[in-house]
Amino acid sequence: MKHAPEPNENNTSHSDGGAMIRRPALVATVMIWDVLALLALLGYAVFLGTGYEYRTLRPADAIKHAEPFPEGADPAVQAKIKRDSDKVFRKLAPRGSHVVIDRVHNRLYLWRANTLLLEAAISCGAGSRLADTKTGREWTFDTPVGRFRVVNRREYPVWVAPDWEFIEANEPIPRSRSARVQEGMLGEYALDLNIPGYMIHGTLYSRLLGRSVSHGCIRVGRDDLRVLWRKVPIGSTVFIF
User: Fold this and answer.
1) For residue 110, what are the contacts with CB-CB under 8 A and spacing of at least 6?
2) Is 183 helix (H, G, I), strand (E, B) or coil?
3) 8, 77, 208, 224: least buried by Cβ within 10 Å?
4) Could you give the CA distance from residue 138 to residue 140 in angstroms, rounded to a whole number?
5) Global pTM?
6) In this predicted structure, what is the pLDDT of residue 66?
7) What residue numbers bound the domain in which 220 lies?
8) What CATH number does residue 192 fall under?
């Protein structure tokens, strides 16, 4: 009586049309092609680029003094455009210190004219959404984009938790204001922006700085927040992009 061969690491008991399949060899071949495909993709990425460009931005005055006119353009027209451009730049240029917030990379920059005073890791809005199934209300926890200004400064601010704080925690919404007050959540200082409910403030979660985890406000670490408190008065411009 003939017995079927014992399966081993090189063979299987499965046959297809009488031909024995060596699966390890097949797997090795597939893996080789996967590696070659990955190397090809990496080669394309190096050659063509990934679509992202990282470079140092030119200062505003360098852009202002760039020559945008084609060769042979009317000098009178050039002079008028330059005069008009200078007026626009003077009007748009922030006075004193101004803050630039890159919410994509979670970075904050404090500038005075063309001098960088501070670069800090921050936490911007997570971009998540919350819906109240009982009332149909919805919230999107995102950091707004645009040009804003500091309208108030608060030392040792308290946070009055809005409805969504309790809905998110699946807790009943309190009726009294005192039940909503939470001390210490905003750190030592808060710089209120001219959009209701949005501010630059401290955080209890410094380990999460550099990640988009907030409900829309800009969270800053303690030491960096102290610099902002000293350098950013009411009326300062805040650019968020």
Assistant:
1) 97, 98, 99, 100, 116, 117, 118, 119, 120, 227, 228, 231, 232
2) strand
3) 8
4) 7
5) 0.64
6) 57
7) 86-240
8) 2.40.440.10
